[in-house]
Write a structure and sequence with these properties.
Elements lengths: L8 E4 L10 H12 L10 E6 L5 E7 L4 E7 L15 E2 L1 H9 L13
Parallel strand pairs: 1-2
Antiparallel strand pairs: 1-5, 2-3, 3-4
């Protein structure tokens, strides 16, 4: 079962990602985010990727038995996504706020026009 709890660390990959990539391609990005040859899909970690126009989002996570690849496409508006910078983990609550249309930093409402 898909579960993202309060102890789950979520990594947002800054900038645009080619979301035509599947499991293996996004897994390689996750390995680059974690670095040091560590296994990225352990210890309840989620990796989030956004496309160039910031209208699509993909999440990559491991539930203990296999990979999950979840996708969302917005009907209107855009995600507020970091363009550049360090990959610092955010909380699961911040991920759900981002998916709902809020900005992760400052918790301001991102009004859709």
């Amino acid at each position: 079962m898909l579960s993202i709890g309060p102890t789950t660390r979520v990594y947002l990959r800054p900038g645009a990602t080619d979301l035509r990539l599947g499991y293996e391609g996004l897994y390689q990005f996750a390995r680059a985010i974690v670095g040091d040859g560590a296994e990225p899909l352990v210890n309840q970690q989620v990796f989030a990727f956004c496309n160039h126009s910031r209208t699509r989002l993909k999440l990559l996570l491991h539930d203990g038995s296999g990979l999950w690849l979840c996708a969302k496409r917005l009907d209107a508006g855009r995600y507020t996504w970091p363009v550049a910078g360090a990959v610092d983990p955010v909380t699961a609550a911040q991920l759900w706020a981002l998916v709902a249309g809020l900005e992760v930093s400052g918790w301001k409402k991102h009004w859709r026009r």
